[in-house]
């Protein structure tokens, strides 16, 4: 062998060794098969990927042992035969039967005469990558916000299902569009400027409006970030519909304005204190104290409190900040600008104001209430004096007749002792006839809402006395009963009736005619007078008396009648004249 040939053989062997080392050290799993699919070579990465211990475990085996889908590999071999090469994703089986997702490539190996002598296959395990992609796809699809990826010039590359559903476009339609296609023309320039500005600072949030396929406009918030997507620079955007938030913000602003108006224009004064200084005061407080806001804001609130109340207010102010239990409402007096003392009711609570804790106090001017309370006290004293001066017994009872309270009288003794009637029903205490009348009067008082009155007799202290009961509804479920002793009045009335009956008998049964005139009309005529004239009582009464006087005497009688009225009984009242009977006779 010549020196030159030895040299070429040495170079060839060295090249083969280098190529073999390269194949063995490749991270890709590589296998060579003959044209019938018998495996003639595998590298170490192949052993590791498919779970074999040594090449002897696999060599002389058939490649079909690691195909998952024989139909699929048959189609791949056809393509390789036609084109000489194929690459793509392929599912294969490991030695233990588990599945691998690989990036598979295959091509034929030809000799110097271009004759196909073998096939080489290369596998890269992408199972973990596919699982990660699947997880990301799951997350991508399950997020309620719209997520889209687009190029730097705004062309859509990918989006989740929420994006398609909300915008109303299919995936095929949206991928053919740009971000500006779904942005109303009047918002495009501002959106473009905001996107570029945010990207310069690594991303951020922009607000804009998107136009859906149906033409509706929706306010959205875009959170954009620059990313690398499939080897190129891109932008990922998370879009959130802010329509409801905008409505809520508008409602909040309206609410804040409403409550600001209430605070400023309410009937109560409202102030905020921090470190004892006035940080806020509404218009009502200004009206109460008479100072302007410039004069009091930033000043000590305690300078506006009357001297006698300063200590208690300061103590409660400090205790409130130390979370001690103290009354929320109490009364104090403030100084007004003109030096007057103003009674107020103050209610305090701790809130957060402008980032710090503050004491909010609601202050109500109670000047009018104090005046009314004073008048009420005076009225109560007057009413009490009146009650004390009344000789009547006063009882309070429920609408079913149960006596619950009473006010005694110095002049009237109760039927029984208080311990025997308080808490008892009138039916248990009083005689049945009187109790029945009380129950009946209570029912009428409830129905008519009017005062009910009745008289009754009752034996008290061994003596028969007369009483008047007046019952009135004093509440929804209570009755006030006022009992007066009318014994003397009743006795007087009885005596009067007896006297009237006595003198009535004398008048009716006397031998002289007797009449009573009023305003010239006959108001009364006794039996003797009716007998003399022949009239019945109903014929004579309410007729002018002069009609019964003889014509020639009427003027005389009328003059005497006037003189008698004018003199008031001082004039001689005895005189003579003729009267006419019913049948026209003079008497």
Number of strands: 22
Q: Give me the secondary-structure category.
A: alpha+beta
Counting DSSP H or I runs of 4 or more residues, the number of helices is 19
Low-confidence sequence ranges: none
- Biggest sheet character: 5 strands, antiparallel
Could you tell me the strand content as a percent range?
A: 25-35%
Q: Estimate percent helicity.
A: 25-40%
Distance between the termini: 203 Å
Quaternary organisation: single chain
Mean pLDDT, nearest integer? 83
Order of strands across the main sheet: 2-1-5-4-3
Instruction: Give the CA-based shape.
Output: elongated
Compute the CA-based radius of gyration: 59 Å
Present the secondary structure layout:
Blueprint: H1 3-25, E1 29-33, E2 39-42, H2 44-50, H3 70-83, E3 85-93, E4 99-110, E5 116-125, H4 127-142, E6 146-151, E7 156-159, H5 161-167, H6 171-175, H7 185-200, E8 204-211, E9 217-229, E10 232-241, H8 243-265, E11 269-274, E12 277-281, H9 283-289, H10 293-296, H11 307-321, E13 329-335, E14 341-353, E15 356-365, H12 367-389, E16 393-398, E17 403-407, H13 418-421, H14 426-429, H15 432-448, E18 452-460, E19 463-473, E20 478-485, H16 487-509, E21 515-518, E22 521-525, H17 527-533, H18 537-540, H19 554-567
Antiparallel strand pairs: 1-2, 1-5, 3-4, 4-5, 6-7, 6-10, 8-9, 9-10, 11-12, 11-15, 13-14, 14-15, 16-17, 16-20, 18-19, 19-20, 21-22
Quick summary:
The protein has 587 residues and is α+β, with helices and mostly antiparallel strands. The protein is 40% helix and 29% strand. Strand 19 and strand 20 (478-485) form a beta hairpin.
């Amino acid at each position: 062998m010549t020196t030159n040939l030895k040299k070429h053989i040495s170079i060839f062997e060295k090249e083969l060794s280098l190529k073999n080392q390269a194949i063995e050290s490749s991270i890709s799993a590589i296998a060579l098969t003959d044209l019938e699919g018998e495996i003639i070579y595998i590298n170490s990465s192949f052993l590791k990927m498919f779970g074999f211990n040594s090449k002897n475990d696999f060599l002389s085996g058939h490649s079909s042992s690691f195909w998952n889908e024989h139909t699929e590999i048959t189609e791949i071999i056809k393509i390789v035969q036609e084109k000489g090469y194929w690459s793509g994703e392929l599912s294969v089986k490991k030695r233990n039967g588990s599945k691998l997702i690989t990036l598979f490539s295959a091509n034929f190996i030809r000799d110097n005469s271009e004759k196909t002598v073998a096939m080489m296959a290369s596998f890269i395990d992408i199972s973990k990558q596919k699982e990660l992609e699947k997880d990301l796809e799951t997350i991508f699809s399950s997020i309620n916000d719209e997520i889209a990826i687009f190029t730097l010039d705004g062309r859509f590359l990918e989006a989740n299902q929420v994006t398609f559903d909300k915008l109303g476009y299919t995936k095929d339609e949206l991928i053919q569009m740009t971000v500006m296609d779904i942005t109303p023309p009047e918002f495009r320039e501002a959106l473009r400027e905001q996107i570029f500005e945010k990207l310069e600072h690594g991303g951020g949030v922009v607000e804009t409006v998107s136009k859906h396929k149906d033409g509706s406009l929706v306010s959205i918030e875009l959170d954009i970030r620059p990313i690398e997507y499939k080897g190129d620079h891109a932008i990922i955007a998370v879009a959130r519909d802010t329509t409801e938030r905008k409505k809520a913000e508008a409602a909040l602003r309206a609410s804040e304005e409403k409550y600001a108006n209430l605070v400023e224009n309410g009937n109560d004064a409202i102030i905020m204190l921090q470190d004892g200084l006035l940080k806020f005061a509404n218009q009502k407080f200004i009206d109460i104290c008479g100072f302007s806001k410039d004069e009091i804001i930033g000043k000590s609130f305690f300078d506006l409190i009357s001297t006698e109340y300063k200590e208690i207010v300061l103590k409660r102010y400090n205790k409130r900040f130390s979370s001690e239990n103290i009354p929320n409402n109490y009364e104090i007096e403030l100084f007004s600008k003109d030096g007057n003392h103003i009674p107020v009711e103050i209610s305090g609570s701790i809130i957060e104001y402008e980032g710090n804790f503050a004491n909010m106090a609601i202050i109500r001017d109670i000047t009018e209430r104090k005046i009314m309370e004073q008048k009420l006290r005076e009225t109560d004293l007057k009413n009490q004096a009146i009650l004390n001066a009344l000789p009547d017994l006063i009882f309070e009872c429920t609408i079913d007749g149960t006596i619950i309270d009473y006010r005694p009288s110095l002049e009237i003794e109760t039927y029984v002792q208080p311990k025997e009637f308080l808490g008892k029903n009138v039916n248990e205490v009083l005689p049945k006839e009187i109790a029945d009348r009380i129950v009946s009067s209570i029912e009428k008082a409830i129905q008519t809402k009017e005062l009910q009155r009745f008289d009754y007799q009752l034996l008290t202290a061994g003596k028969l006395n007369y009483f008047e009961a007046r019952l009135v509804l004093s509440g929804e479920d209570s009755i006030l009963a006022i009992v007066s002793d009318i014994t003397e009045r009743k006795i007087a009335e009885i005596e009067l009736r007896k006297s009237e009956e006595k003198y009535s008998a004398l008048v009716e049964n006397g031998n002289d005619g007797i009449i009573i005139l009023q305003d010239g009309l006959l108001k009364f005529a006794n039996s003797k007078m009716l007998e003399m004239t022949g009239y019945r009582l109903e014929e004579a009464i309410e007729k002018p008396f002069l009609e019964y006087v003889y014509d020639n005497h009427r003027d005389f009688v009328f003059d005497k009648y006037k003189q008698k009225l004018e003199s008031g009984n001082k004039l001689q009242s005895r005189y003579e004249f003729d009267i006419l009977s019913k049948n026209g006779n003079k008497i």
